[in-house]
Q: What sequence folds into this?
């Protein structure tokens, strides 16, 4: 396996803005770093599951991908636009704040992976390009899935750390911040449609 190429692909794809990282910074800004860690771990667990499933069912997925690509894209884009709306419409003294604090960010992180086209396509691509051609054991699939899940946790946590570190500044410019985060999610959704 071309290890350097694999690592560059994984790092660039994981740490660039996307639904996971944008949601991590937004949650950290709203809920703080400690609560957002649940989301980051959920992203890692969800991405572990996606990568593991991609490893086990890659040949099957590539055969049916033309049939599931459009519904998956529509579902993912719809969910991203919903998240953008929720960010954009949140207010400082929102009545739903208490309800938001009760939501399980771990479950949100896991669920997001199953409707995140960037994550799913990344999982399929990394498995098909870098793992299956060089490895055939289930142990290697498990180890790569664990590694990629950890990268998912590290990338979202780094964005959450940024959101938490600059929370006071971001709170001053909350409306502007929410607009920028919502626009980034809309951009992600549009780029998926145009890809």
A:
């Amino acid at each position: 396996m071309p290890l350097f190429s694999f690592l560059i692909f994984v790092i660039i794809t994981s740490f660039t803005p996307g639904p996971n990282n944008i949601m991590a910074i937004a949650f950290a800004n709203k809920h703080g770093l400690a609560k957002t860690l649940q989301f980051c771990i959920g992203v890692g667990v969800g991405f572990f599951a996606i990568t593991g499933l991609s490893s086990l069912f890659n040949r099957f997925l590539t055969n049916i991908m033309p049939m599931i690509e459009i519904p998956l894209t529509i579902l993912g884009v719809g969910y991203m636009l919903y998240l953008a709306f929720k960010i954009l419409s949140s207010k400082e003294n929102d009545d739903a704040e208490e309800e938001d604090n009760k939501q399980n960010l771990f479950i949100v992180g896991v669920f997001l992976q199953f409707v995140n086209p960037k994550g799913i396509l990344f999982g399929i691509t990394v498995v098909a390009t870098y793992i299956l051609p060089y490895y055939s054991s289930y142990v290697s699939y498990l180890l790569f899935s664990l590694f990629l899940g950890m990268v998912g946790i590290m990338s979202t946590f780094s964005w959450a750390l940024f959101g938490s570190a600059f929370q006071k500044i971001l709170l001053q410019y909350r409306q502007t911040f929410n607009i920028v985060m919502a626009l980034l999610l809309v951009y992600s959704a549009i780029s998926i449609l145009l890809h």
